[in-house]
Amino acid sequence: MKHFLSALDVPDVTALADSAAAFKAAPRSAETLGRGKRIGCLFLNPSLRTRLSTQVAAQQLGMEAIVFNVGAEGWALEFAEGAVMNGTTVEHVKDAAPILGQYFDILAIRTFPGLKDRAEDYSERYISQFVKYAGVPVVSLESATLHPLQSLADLLTIRETFAGGRRPKVVLSWAPHVKPLPQCVANSFAQWMTVWGGADFVVTHPEGYTLDPQYTKGASITHNQDEAFEGADYIYVKNWSSYEQYGQILSNDTDWMLTLDKLKATNNGKVMHCLPVRRNVELSDEVLDSAHSLVTQQAGNRVWAAQAVLADILKSNA
Ligand SMILES: NCCC[C@H](NC(=O)CCC(=O)O)C(=O)O
Ligand SMILES: NC(=O)OP(=O)(O)O
Hints:
By secondary structure, the protein is α/β, with parallel strands linked by helices. The protein folds into 2 domains: 3-147 and 301-317, Aspartate/ornithine carbamoyltransferase (Rossmann fold, 3-Layer(aba) Sandwich); 150-298, Aspartate/ornithine carbamoyltransferase (Rossmann fold, 3-Layer(aba) Sandwich), CATH 3.40.50. It has 14 helices and 11 strands. The protein is globular, with a radius of gyration of 19 Å. Bound molecules: N~2~-(3-carboxypropanoyl)-L-ornithine and phosphoric acid mono(formamide)ester. The site of N~2~-(3-carboxypropanoyl)-L-ornithine has 9 residues, from helix 8. One of its GO terms (molecular function) is amino acid binding. N(2)-succinyl-L-ornithine binds at residues 142, 177, 238, 278. Keywords: Amino-acid biosynthesis, Arginine biosynthesis, Transferase. Belongs to the aspartate/ornithine carbamoyltransferase superfamily. SOTCase family.
């Protein structure tokens, strides 16, 4: 693949998850693949896992990784076409991106949505301008609407932990939060689950939190969390702000927090979350600290997901 922005860039998500599993079994199996190559990781927003796992993955492929917190330390970038730059932005992406394309063989970017203007966020203007102007492969480190590296790690986690000999029931469950969050992780998980097609996939959320249907096509959607949890093998917990009443918090319904009591209806369900997590708001301590929780394994798998993606891009663009 050329770029990695969405599941739709991946010819075969199962094969990519297999590649991630192979790197997990043999981390140094392609340690010369990236020799002499350099990845630039640009962060317009904070990160712990994505930032570090991508660097570890690059190093294990023999690549050099340079991280730049462009949001905090760089010149304020302008993305609007034809902007009269007499305000706070200092440098246009049209000028910056081609330079970054000369410094790096792969450019990876984290750029969260503004959550003010849905059309603007869902146009993915920021990351697509890097694609347009950098001239090198671009990897999403979470963009305005999707988080594909997270979803690939999630798919790996489900495939390596499920031993049921049937299709697992996987539930994406909305959770309360203190602030409006992007829809990225939820959109992306739904997209990967439906593109993969290996699970009975259910999305549950309070009214008003319907996700963009392009990502949930093929999923069962219900406002009844108890019903969704019945017999579930995996519960993926995530908050998102409203897509319909864009960027709003409509419900701070604490009843939606995942507790051990709620897990009783599941099939000894495993619990997933992308992290960072607000303890005792989204999930209770007793869930996160129990054997139900896969969150540490899931975050560990971010390395293998990133390694599979970078290896594929290196091979495809050799
Ligand atoms: N990269 C994984 C999640 C990133 C982001 N969470 C956050 O911003 C949490 C912030 C907080 O808890 O204050 C999100 O939901 O998309
Ligand atoms: N899950 C995830 O993307 O974590 P970071 O925001 O810490 O990178």
